C-alpha cells in the first residue's frame, strides 16, 4: 500500500476526510525510513516529529541511571510514535524511540502540525481522540501492573497485541510487563505445560 494511502485509511477510521483534505494533509508529512536499531529520538534530545508507522516496529523506552531500559510502549503499523511533551515544549525527550525492525514512517514536525490544524481542522479532533485513547490505555496498563500478577499481564498482552508479540524480543516484552526475562521464560514454560 502506498504510504500516504495508509495514513488516509487510518485517519478515515476516526474522521472521514475528503480527497482535498487528504491531499492537503499528505503534503505536510514526509517519509522517513529507519534501519533496525536506528533511533527516531534519543532520550535527552528534542523530539522533532509526530510519526505515523506505515511499516515496521518501534519501541519507546526510558533508560534509568543504572543503564536499565524500561519499555513504555511499542508502535507498529497503523500506530503513532512520539514524545509529545518534548515535541510540544521543545524540551529534551524523556525517553528514546528506536526501531526494533526496519520501519517506514510518515513524520510531521511541530510547525507542520500547526499548519495541519489550520488547513484541515478535522485533525485537531483526530489527534484529541488519538491522545484520549492513548491516555486511557496507559492508565489501564498502570492499573494492571499494580494489581495483576505477571502471568495475567502477559496473557492480556498476548490477547491485546497478538501481531506484536511474535515480532518483539522477549527481553523487551519482559521489560514492558515489568518482569525479568528469566521470569518471563519461566512463565511461558509453565503456560505451555498447562
Automatic annotation (TrEMBL):
Database matches in Gene3D superfamilies: Jelly Rolls (2.60.120.10)
Residue ranges occupied by any Cyclic nucleotide-binding domain in the UniProt entry: 25-116
Highest taxon listed in the record's lineage: Bacteria
Cited InterPro entries: cNMP-bd_dom, cNMP-bd_dom_sf, RmlC-like_jellyroll
PROSITE patterns: CNMP_BINDING_3
Protein name: Putative transcriptional regulator, Crp/Fnr family
Species classification: Bacteria, Pseudomonadati, Bacteroidota, Cytophagia, Cytophagales
Amino acid at each position: 500500500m502506498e504510504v500516504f494511502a495508509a495514513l488516509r485509511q487510518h485517519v478515515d477510521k476516526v474522521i472521514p476526510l475528503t480527497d482535498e483534505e487528504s491531499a492537503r494533509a499528505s503534503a505536510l508529512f514526509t517519509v522517513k525510513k529507519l534501519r533496525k536499531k536506528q533511533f527516531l529520538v534519543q532520550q535527552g534530545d528534542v523530539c522533532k516529529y509526530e510519526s505515523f508507522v506505515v511499516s515496521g516496529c518501534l519501541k519507546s523506552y526510558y533508560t534509568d541511571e543504572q543503564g536499565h531500559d524500561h519499555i513504555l510502549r511499542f508502535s507498529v503499523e497503523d500506530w503513532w510514535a512520539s514524545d509529545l511533551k518534548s515535541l510540544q515544549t521543545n524540551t529534551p525527550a524523556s525517553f528514546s524511540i528506536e526501531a526494533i525492525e526496519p520501519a517506514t514512517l510518515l513524520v510531521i514536525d511541530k510547525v507542520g502540525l500547526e499548519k495541519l490544524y489550520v488547513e484541515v481542522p478535522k485533525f485537531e479532533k483526530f489527534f484529541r481522540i488519538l491522545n484520549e485513547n492513548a491516555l486511557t490505555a496507559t492508565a489501564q496498563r498502570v492499573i494492571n501492573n499494580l494489581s495483576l500478577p505477571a502471568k495475567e499481564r502477559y496473557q492480556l498482552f498476548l490477547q491485546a497485541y497478538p501481531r506484536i508479540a511474535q515480532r518483539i524480543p522477549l527481553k523487551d516484552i519482559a521489560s514492558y510487563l515489568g518482569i525479568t526475562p528469566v521470569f518471563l521464560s519461566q512463565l511461558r514454560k509453565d503456560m505451555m505445560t498447562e
